[in-house]
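re the bet — no i am not wrong, look at it urself. input seq straight from the record:
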Amino acid sequence: MTREATAGGGSPDTVLARVGDRDVTIADWIGAWIDTHPPGSKSPTPQEAQGFLEVLIDRELATAAALRRSFPWTDQDRADTVAVRDRLALRAALDAVVAEAHRALPDSAGAEAAGVLARERAVAGLEAHWSDAELERLAAAFAALAPPSSDSSLASQIRALSAAPRLDSTQAGAVVVAKAIHSARPSTMKTARPSTPGTGDARPDARSYRTSAFSRDSRSECESGSQAV
């Protein structure tokens, strides 16, 4: 391991320390300092700068030692790796879709508006065919649930709002929405009842049930599709 002192500054590529075949440059030092210190922190003294460089050198030594060792992978390690890969693939897919939607909006539009437009495009592209009759039956079943009492505890009110109606086998197996990929039935769409737009009531109409159920179903498809990215 060799070190090169830098007097009077230097270019970002100036090597401050070398650990094996890994160089620690001024750019590395500055990036690490920014990442570990809050904005507006005072500039380090020469002694503090040297001490922080020693920390970076120790980190490189620890990394090199870890890479020389062979650690057996457990089933949990493999599962965690797959989960990270899937999350990264999903994030990349979603970011691409939202970015495309953002380009169709004014420059002043925010990320939320782009996300709404991306969702609307995705829903339209699925060409869903809804059964208004089944939606009305579901909305009526939710509306028949007893509303939470205003004098009950918060936990009781949350449980009441999260309650789902009991459906017989015929109702649970009825097709609510048919798409090119698959059909959704009430038995697969269990959720807290949505609120009627424009009110504080927890009793939904068919339109609000349709919106919440389909948004959730579309997200599930997006997550499934991202695994193939």
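see?? Residues 129-207 form one domain. told u. also The longest strand covers residues 15-19. so pay up
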